Amino acid sequence: MLRVRPLVHTNYFHEYVALLTALGMDCVQTQDDGGWQVFDSGNGKVAVRRACADSLPGTSMHLGFELRDAEIFIQRTLADGTTAELAPDAGAARVTAPDGFSFLAHPSNDLSLAHPQARLAVATVWRTLQPEMANTVLANIGAKHVRDSTGGGAVFRMKNGGLVTTAAGDLTGVELGFTYNGGLAELGKKLTGVAVTVGLDGDALCVTMSDGVSLTITS
Which site from 94, 114, 192, 217 is most exposed, i.e. has the minimal number of CB atoms within 10 Å? Predict the structure, then answer.
């Protein structure tokens, strides 16, 4: 089992909750007096955590996954040649890429597969100086290669939902994105008033939040 579940850590908590709700995602988990919420699209999830009141304003995006059994996942990932260990403070598996970039995969009791009729899919982008390295890491954790993309990147699908695209970048980082099987113009109307700007550029809907973060939704 493997499912995409990126984390949005933000001072703009309510805005991101409103965005995910407008996209049609369902809130399936709430903790910390509502300061931690997980939304499900039927094809991948997104977790949103409220930043501490004394932290600097802004938003950070983190690559993340859900899995069934952390210990088995760690054993298989190590056997395939990628560093993985149990994260003691989270009860999750921590995967570390050769360049030092790391991410968490949290245990989950939700064993459902990606819903075949889900219109929205979570599509995270992992930007790195070494996309080929990132491709190997994703393959080693059990992601399925879908197709190659420009600059050495590739698109990977998780069996239980969601996509991750590796892409070349000057800095290592994570971007939250989505794919949508439907009319982007109509979807854009639903997001008007939630985001600062919403614009259609060919086959992509570009959404800019008030924290300056831009999201892309492709058809």
Answer: 192
Specify the pLDDT at position 174. Answer: 98
Count Cβ neighbours within 10 Å for each residue of 46-62 and write b for 16 or more, e otherwise: bbbbbbeeeeeeebebb
The per-residue pLDDT for 180 is: 98
Q: Does residue 90 have a pLDDT over 80?
A: no
Distance of CA 55 to the CA centre of its chain: 23
Written as one letter, the residue type at 99 is D
Which neighbouring-strand residues pair with 155?
147, 165
Tell me the average pLDDT across 31-39.
95
Q: What is the pLDDT of residue 57?
A: 85
Give the pairing type, strands 45-50 and 36-40: antiparallel
User: Which residue type occupies 142?
Assistant: G
Averaged pLDDT, 129-157: 97
Q: Which amino acid is at 10?
A: T
Cα gap 203→219, rounded to integer Å: 6
Mean pLDDT of the chain: 96
Residue 54 has pLDDT above 90, yes or no: no
Sequence-ordered list of residues with C-beta below 8 angstroms from that of 47, at least 6 positions apart, any chain:
5, 6, 7, 8, 36, 37, 38, 39, 64
CA–CA dist 218, 202 (Å, integer):
9
Alpha-helical (H) ranges within 45-173 are 70-79, 131-140
Cβ burial 4-16 (10 Å sphere, 16+ → b, else e): bbbbbbbebbebb
